[in-house]
């Protein structure tokens, strides 16, 4: 039986693909492969970095709890022996400017500028040293300050925290914002930043300068009637020690 299939005659003309199109395809495939490799490397690096951040956060929690236990044990030991427990001198202050720009002498005005307290209700962290303690005496009638606890530091950074990147005020909505500026100092996340500020670590200056001055509201219920009297006299300015925490929470 004869084969009835018909064979197509070979075309005398062959269609060649232009050289430019071949190059374009080759470059496009190379770019696509490079993007895929970069995406995979970024995903792997981010996963590893996430594990590091979680482990550090767990270590910080244990450190904070141990610090609280040590204070409780010290108080109990002092009570057993009939002594009085005296807490260690504060290493960290949070300062809030409570007075505007009118009727401020040049020297206190300059110190307020050095502390970056340019507007009323601005707040900053400072390390307590002999020099800063002397400067606080000059500007005490214009500020309220005290020793913040861990909860206050965390609420300020999470709720009102902004970073300074290229002279711009960037909200701290992601760990990448912190890492992009402070990664070279091994500060990779917001929890690392909180730990560095609260513990007054070796990189406190860089971490504090990275934070934009906090912009707070007026306290809930308003200031006291005699705002420009000292706190112990029924006013608002001056050192209020651990009572600064209640004031900050009413202003966040």
Which helices and strands appear, and what pairs or packs with what?
Elements: H1 19-80, E1 92-97, H2 106-114, E2 122-127, H3 130-139, E3 143-146, H4 150-160, E4 162-165, E5 168-171, H5 175-182, H6 190-198, H7 204-210, E6 214-215, E7 238-239, H8 244-251
Parallel strand pairs: 3-7
Antiparallel strand pairs: 1-2, 1-3, 2-6, 4-5
Helix pairs in contact: 4-6
In short:
The chain has helices at 19-80, 106-114, 130-139, 150-160, 175-182, 190-198, 204-210, 244-251; strands spanning 92-97, 122-127, 143-146, 162-165, 168-171, 214-215, 238-239. The protein is an alpha+beta fold and 252 residues long.
Describe what you observe in this structure.
The chain is an alpha+beta fold. The longest helix is centred in the first third of the chain and has 62 residues, at 19-80. It contains eight helices and seven strands. Helix 4 (150-160) packs across helix 6 (190-198). Strands 6-2-1-3-7 form a five-stranded mixed β-sheet. The chain has a two-stranded antiparallel ribbon with strand order 4-5.
